[in-house]
Amino acid sequence: MFLDTPFMPWIDHLPEVGDPIRKERAKLLEVAEQAAELERQALALRAQVEAGQAALLTKVMQHWTLQDIQQASDRADRQSQAAVMLRHIDAHKLRDALRKLDGTHLAAEALRAFHDGEVIGQHNLLSTATDDERRAALERVLKWWNLAGVPVYDRLAAA
Asked: How confident is the model over 30-83, as pLDDT tens digits?
């Protein structure tokens, strides 16, 4: 079960609920657990992608100079809306976290970027943050959403 969180616990509070309903809930929980396992497998595949990208870069570096690679990267960045958006992110932790995403990233990776990029920040936005801190946090959320959330959402919406 997920973090000891009860699955559909309200069923147990129905008057005279029987085993058929509980068994159906148990089947649904099994499906949810299968989905979580598939997510873990997807993250393992993404780790293979990351390792493959590093290996490919190593091969490329054997055939081209760093200057050639940098020029190619600069040309690609000029054609990339995401690269333009990244340049307009002042929060360095968020910029670095988002830079790791490649547009084919998973929702879990987008959430990791949210955490690692300290999108919300250290302040409790409801009580101690100033209005400027709240506005800055909302700006970071919007930038995270545009670069990390939208690609995932678009891919899932097309499925």
From this structure: 999 999 999 999 999 999 999 999 999 999 999 999 999 999 999 999 999 999
CA torsion sign for 120, 153, 85, 42 is positive
Q: Given phi > 0 = left and psi -120 to 50 = alpha, else beta, which region is 69?
A: alpha
List phi, psi (to 5°) of 128. Answer: -105, -15
In this structure, what token pair is assigned to residue 68?
Answer: 């050639």
CA torsion angle 45 51 52 53 (round to 10): 110
Of the given ranges (62-66, 72-76, 128-132, 135-139), which has the lowest mean pLDDT? 128-132
The helix or strand, by DSSP H or E, that contains position 23, with its residue range, turns out to be helix 19-63
Instruction: Give the amino acid at 29.
Output: L
